[in-house]
């Protein structure tokens, strides 16, 4: 008997596009996020109002802006500046794309592939937020 190879779906085919409205009369978003590049993680959902978002989902984009490789403060800033309802693209973590940003960046992908392109976006976001350091120290 031959074994049938089960082809795993790439994480890109599992991206969920959601709209998060303000909640009730209080006008709060009802969405909380964690992670961020400052913690070595992808930004992810820590509390969700429903509507397709799940706690633990990795946040790829907010309002059309890729947020991978951004600090938690920058991601929250984008979240707070978007018009409502906020469009958010997420994906459930899996074997290739988990919460660990460093692990993902350490992997080798085929040049030009979706994963390679995503690594480039992450690196660009990281470099934009890096503080240059010359290595010299001056004592006053």
From TrEMBL:
<protein>
    <recommendedName>
        <fullName>PDZ domain-containing protein</fullName>
    </recommendedName>
</protein>
<dbReference type="InterPro" id="IPR036034">
    <property type="entry name" value="PDZ_sf"/>
</dbReference>
<dbReference type="InterPro" id="IPR001478">
    <property type="entry name" value="PDZ"/>
</dbReference>
<dbReference type="GO" id="GO:0007165">
    <property type="term" value="P:signal transduction"/>
</dbReference>
<dbReference type="GO" id="GO:0005911">
    <property type="term" value="C:cell-cell junction"/>
</dbReference>
<dbReference type="GO" id="GO:0005737">
    <property type="term" value="C:cytoplasm"/>
</dbReference>
<feature type="domain" description="PDZ">
    <location>
        <begin position="19"/>
        <end position="94"/>
    </location>
</feature>
């Amino acid at each position: 008997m031959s074994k049938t190879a089960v082809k795993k779906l790439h994480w890109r085919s599992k991206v969920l596009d959601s709209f998060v409205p303000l909640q009730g009369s209080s006008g709060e978003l009802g969405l909380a996020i964690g992670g961020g590049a400052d913690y070595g993680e992808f930004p992810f959902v820590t509390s969700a109002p429903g509507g397709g978002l799940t706690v633990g989902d990795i946040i790829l984009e907010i309002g059309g802006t890729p947020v991978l490789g951004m600090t938690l403060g920058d991601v929250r800033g984008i979240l707070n500046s978007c018009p409502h309802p906020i469009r958010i693209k997420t994906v459930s973590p899996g074997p290739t794309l988990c919460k660990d940003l460093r692990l993902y960046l350490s992997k080798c992908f085929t040049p030009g592939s979706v994963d390679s392109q995503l690594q480039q976006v992450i690196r660009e976001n990281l470099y934009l937020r890096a503080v240059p350091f010359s290595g010299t120290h001056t004592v006053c």
